[in-house]
Design a protein that fits this description.
By secondary structure, the chain is of the alpha+beta class. The chain has 4 domains: 1-56 and 265-427, no CATH class; 57-256, no CATH class; 430-516 and 707-849, no CATH class; 548-681, no CATH class. 52% of the residues lie in helices and 16% in strands. The protein has 27 helices and 21 strands. The strands form 2 sheets. Strands 2-3-8-5-7-6 form a 6-stranded mixed β-barrel, surrounded by 4 helices. A 6-stranded mixed barrel has the order 12-14-19-16-18-17. A hairpin with a 2-residue loop joins β17 and β18. α15 (407-428) packs across α16 (431-459), α18 packs antiparallel against α23 (707-746) and α18 (484-514) packs across α25. The longest helix is centred in the last third of the chain and has 40 residues, at 707-746. The protein starts with a helix and ends with a helix.
Amino acid sequence: MSSFPFRMAWRETRASWRHFAYFFVCIMLGVAALVGVGLFGASLDRAIQREARSLMAADVELRTSRPLTPEGEAVLKSFETQGIARMQVSELVAMAAIPSDGQSDRRRGTQLVELKAVEPGYPFYGKLRAEPADALEKVLGGGPGSFALVQEALLIRLDLAVGDTLKIGQAEFTIAGVLRKEPDRAAGAFSLGPRVLISRKGLEATALIQPGSRVTNRHLLKLPDTMDARALQGALAQTFPDKTARISAYQESQPMLRRFLRQMTMYLGLVGLIALMVGGIGVASSVRAFLKEKLETIAVLKAVGAESGTILHIYLVQTMLLGLLGSLAGAALGAGLQVALPPLMAQWLPVELEFHLSLPPLALGLAMGLLTTALFALWPLLEVRRLKPNLVFRRDVSEEPAGSPGRAAWLISGMLALALAGLALLQAGSWRSAGLFIGALVLALGLLQGTAWLVVRLVRRLPRWRSLAWRQGSANLYRPGNPTRSILVSVGVGVMVILAVHLIERNLLWEIGETLPADAPSFFFIDIQPDQHDAFARLLAERGYADTRLTPLVRSRLWSLNGERIRPEAYEEREHGWYFTREYVLTFQKDLPRGNVVTKGQWWDTSVPAGGPLISVEEEAARRLGLDIGSTVEFDIQGAKVSGRVASVRKVDWGNLSTNFYFIFEPGALEGAPMTYVATTQVADADEVPLQRAVVAAFPNVSAINIRDVLDSVARVVDRISLVIRFMAGLSILGGTFVLAGALAATRFRRVYEAMILKAVGATRGAVAGTFAVEYALLGAAAGIIGSALATLLAWGVLRWILDDVKWHFPPEAIAWGIGAAILGTLTVGFLSTFSILGQKPLPVLRGE
């Protein structure tokens, strides 16, 4: 008897395999999404580990924004006696210009660039790719300011070619070749301009490095094979005098890139989990519909002595077998997604991916597929236990079984749900992310179920118009055995995910560009030296920009709060720890900046107790750092310590694109500190290029940042990210489509029978088609409205709590498109699933019944 359930399950599956096609596809799509993202993440981790040294171009990197002090130089020099090779790489923003040569205006363009200066021997690891291949040798072997490598984008923007001349600062460079790839530069998610690579001697010739200039200095160390990078990292951290320097071993190369890609794969995996949940709804619908068709078989088995447990065993084996097959097919499809995902992520991939099958993502996907199958199929299967054979034979079985499935069902469901939640935690990688996701998913499914139940009840109260199509179509939504709820939930989830991603993207882009204040500056001019202040202001005033605002900038890091020393290493792993470890740009101002509102204290209140200069702090920074009125803050400004007492807390409108600051000192407090100035001004579109040329010609060290170009670059990043997420979310929509098609296929016989009755009493083919069209349109409209409402709520929550209170903008046209797409999609799938019914003749069908 023990083999009977397996034999029976196999026979039932072979006889009804077409019925389970939708079941199979729903599970396959969900597992494919999870496995695809998991394999991609594993391949990416493997590639980054393989290329870790190349991504840093060294074994150990010391990164600082300050020039080396004599003490720091002595520490690094002491390592040279141990056989450690060393070089310095400097990176900064600069202006590139075409020297005036009496040619046309076309030959006098300017462009903001990301400048990189390297020494001979660069890179220690990896390979720089350039065309021609020997171009780097020219750059490093020539005299000061002789040659440069540039990205092709710069050639296109300035209409240049290899061999032309480029001016940067006070030096002129001949373009030696096109820079294709740097081993230690992450694929650009965001950049201020094309890369230009020159030698360190060339950088000295430009005279761009001035006191207070923003320069990132990377000191690269190459170790002998016998020396451990981690050990040297620890020794350097102990002995290097500048504690604000960031020291990394090659195992930690590209930390921001790693963090970004880790978070991206986590979000994609969670979106894939939504697709799997939609597939679970399809499983429940398919199993329930299948069992209704097998009522007589089940009744016969019970009548001849089969116990409820044996029958439950048969269909449980059958369901889990199909779940396993669907999961295996999904794992295979997920492996195939490796062809599609890397091109979508290419903008952020600094390494070449080599695809390998990795066991953990495959095992996780299979486990989640089987658990989802068991969880969603359990309740329909448990209805078998309460089936009475005599009612089946008398045709008295209710369409909706009454009563509770029992405590055992609740216990088993709870255990399966906890197991699935545990796997979701594994997928998310953190308790917080997994908890938020599971809570949001449970809440969304609960709201969808409740709203679907309400829709079914409300449809009963719709007006009874005379139209046959309207009466029959609306009645189909609440007739016995209708699949309305499962369709509304599955399609609603798909609409919710896709539309929520779109709404978040729209609001971010709106926040970035469309909400730009009318008086926002169009240019930032940075690295203006103190001795250039008056001349720069005079130049802009002569060109009609007398309202240009020049603001002093002093770069610093936190040294202590309320007398307690800040140790950056203690905050690196904390959430919002960057408030303690970041570089702060300080300023001093007499008047409250535009867009700032004092929420505590007073602006330069002389009644605050003495104890150093007065400081105003931004409210979020004050909250994160634990500051209040009277708190003391001490900063390290290139080795000098400056302290002050908090006199006020400000709310800052960061969206006005003015020069905003976390910390502002009272006037005179930072006199003598190394500083530069930043200038902001509004420029008419037609004057942008002439003004930029004039500034670069008079002040070669000053960089002009066009706000419009920056906003466009940020918008492109947002668009790329949303494209990747929409690609994965599309699997949820595809899964919802199969749930809909499966639900319609499961009720096909009932629809055929009702359509033939309508035809027999005189209804035309058009009237029957109209009936189906009304039903599908109502289903699509309800699913679209429910999904759109939840998408709006979800997008608002993400913008409010996860993206730090981005302002909410409600786009009604996007909601209308979401509802319209749901209606059109439901009509299309419904038509394709039932159009063959329209051509059938009533008599054979009614006789067959």
